[in-house]
Design brief:
Blueprint lengths: L22 H34 L8 E5 L6 H8 L12 H9 L4 E9 L3 E8 L4 E5 L2 E5 L5 E5 L8 E3 L14 H9 L2 H5 L1 E7 L2 E6 L4 E5 L4 H15 L6 E3 L7 E2 L1
Parallel strand pairs: 1-3, 7-8, 10-11
Antiparallel strand pairs: 2-3, 4-5, 5-6, 8-9, 9-10, 11-12
Helix pairs in contact: 2-3
């Protein structure tokens, strides 16, 4: 009987290969890197925007010169107050549209423009309305332009412009009277014609000019105004001072006097 020790076969364990990396872990790392890049980019943009905003608010781009052109009846300060633009304002943040709207709300202003001239200048240009007639209303005398817009109250009308008669609605400055046709005729008068016209009246028969000499110029409808005025001046010139009660140019190619 054999006494030798029974040997067991020893099995050596082979090294198992490492499990493959999970796809989910790789995607997570990629997303993390992407978020970090976005965060850095966001911080850079925020810093740049802060710096840019600071520059626009700095004295480097602040208004230090305000120029107003075109005023006659208004003062430059009235225009600036209406525009809402002041020295020290940031050039970049001036709302030119709002400034123009504010200026054009002034009764005397027909049109306005506001322009930035970098680095420090704002230029405002105004076109004013011209008084064409005056109206005597319940609240006193007011000046109106050729569109019938009420410009301002006056104690005494300036010389050389006629009175406008026949208006029944006379609003405060900035509003428009209802006798617009008569206002258009008054606005078409110039020089001696304006000085020699005492009043322009809206009547049921149309527009009538009352001359300083006492003669009426009957114009009919408020159309072909310049043609009718030229016809009236031609007739009065041909009369050579001979007194007449009226000149009718409602049909300007066939004027009548009497």
């Amino acid at each position: 009987m054999s006494t030798g020790a029974q040997t067991r076969p020893v099995s050596s364990r082979a090294s198992a290969p490492a499990p493959p990396a999970r796809a989910g872990s790789s995607r997570a790392r990629s997303r993390s890197r992407g978020r970090r890049r976005l965060l850095v980019a966001g911080l850079v943009v925020a810093v740049l925007l802060t710096v840019a905003y600071g520059v626009t608010r700095s004295p480097l781009l602040a208004v230090d010169t305000l120029r107003v052109r075109g005023t006659s009846h208004l003062t430059p300060q009235q225009v600036l107050d209406a525009a809402g633009v002041h020295e020290g304002d940031a050039m970049v943040w001036i709302d030119t549209g709002a400034a123009v709207a504010g200026i054009e709300s002034l009764p005397y202003v027909r049109a306005a423009s506001v322009a930035r001239e970098y680095p420090h200048t704002v230029r405002i240009t105004v076109r004013e309305r011209t008084p064409s007639a005056w109206v005597d209303g319940p609240a006193g005398k007011v000046l109106v332009d050729r569109t019938g817009r009420v410009l301002e109250p006056v104690d005494a009308p300036p010389p050389g412009i006629p009175q406008l008669l026949g208006a029944t609605t006379i609003p405060p400055p900035g509003g428009t009277i209802d006798a617009r046709g008569a206002a258009r005729v008054a606005g078409a008068l110039h020089g001696l014609a304006a000085a020699g016209t005492a009043s322009v009246e809206r009547t049921d028969r149309g527009i009538v000019l009352h001359l300083a000499t006492g003669t009426e110029v009957r114009m009919g409808a408020a159309n072909r105004i310049r043609t009718k005025l030229a016809a009236a001046l031609a007739v009065l010139g041909a009369l050579n001072g001979q007194p007449v009660s009226y000149v009718d140019v409602s049909v300007p190619t066939n004027p009548v006097s009497g």
